[in-house]
UniProtKB/TrEMBL annotation:
PANTHER family: DEOXYGUANOSINE KINASE, DEOXYNUCLEOSIDE KINASE. ATP binds at G11, P12, I13, G14, A15, G16, K17, T18, T19, R138, I139, G140, M141, R142. Gene3D superfamilies: P-loop containing nucleotide triphosphate hydrolases. Keywords: ATP-binding, Kinase, Nucleotide-binding, Transferase. Belongs to the DCK/DGK family. One of its GO terms (cellular component) is cytoplasm. Residues 7-206 form the Deoxynucleoside kinase domain. This is AAA family ATPase. GO terms for molecular function: ATP binding; deoxynucleoside kinase activity. InterPro entries: DCK/DGK (IPR002624), Deoxyribonucleoside_kinase (IPR050566), DNK_dom (IPR031314), P-loop_NTPase (IPR027417). It comes from Paenibacillus spiritus.
């Protein structure tokens, strides 16, 4: 049986990944894998003191994403189902490179490759890019208390990291189809025509 398509939606914090993933999954009749965020016990501490809590935070995310890919995504894909996820495993390195330093960064890289190198990889990636005002507005609208202490400077640096990392990922995985969505110009929630255009591009890559 042919494996199903694996679609990942990526972008910085507040870009709208979970919303777009849910909308695509609904239209495609596909299950959706959502990353665990608010359940991370280190997130609030991290936003208050990034240096002290970054390793614990990133390890929690890495281990949970590994388990989701291994236990949820892989069986569905191997059974021929298409799966939509609101993250790409590569985000572990994007965030880890930003938050970790020295020996902790190197240990994290080693653990990342040990866990993730044999996991199923998305064949379609949707990258939602957005500027800082857009992200701050959306973060404020969704009202997660733990995010209210987030340093805008950290978010701004993440935007830069994604702008570098996504083209690098495309070069590393030339067989993966990439769809870029400008979150500052496109409102796929309020504008159905704009969402249909994204959906159309995804379906083209599924053929």
């Amino acid at each position: 049986m042919r494996p199903g398509h694996f679609i990942a939606v990526e972008g910085p914090i507040g870009a709208g990944k979970t919303t777009l993933a849910a909308m695509l999954a609904r239209e495609l009749g596909a299950p959706v894998v959502n990353e665990i965020v608010e359940e991370n016990p280190y997130l609030g501490k991290f936003y208050q003191n990034m240096e002290d809590w970054s390793f614990q935070l990133e390890m929690f995310f890495l281990c949970n994403r590994f388990k989701q890919l291994e236990d949820e995504a892989r069986p569905l894909l191997e059974s021929g189902r298409t799966v939509v996820a609101d993250y790409h495993m590569y985000k572990n390195l994007i965030f880890g490179e930003r938050t970790l330093n020295g020996s902790k960064r190197e240990k994290y890289r080693q653990i990342y490759h040990l866990l993730m190198d044999d996991q199923p990889r998305p064949d379609i990636v949707i990258y939602i890019k957005a500027d800082l005002p857009t992200l701050l507005r959306r973060i404020g609208m969704r009202g997660r208390e733990i995010e209210q202490a987030m340093d805008p400077g950290y978010l701004s640096r993440l935007i830069e990291d994604y702008e570098e990392a996504m083209p690098a990922l495309a070069r590393r995985e030339p067989g993966t189809a990439f769809v870029t969505v400008d979150g500052g110009e496109i409102d796929f929630v309020e504008n159905p025509a704009q969402f249909r255009e994204i959906l159309s591009q995804v379906k083209e890559h599924m053929q």
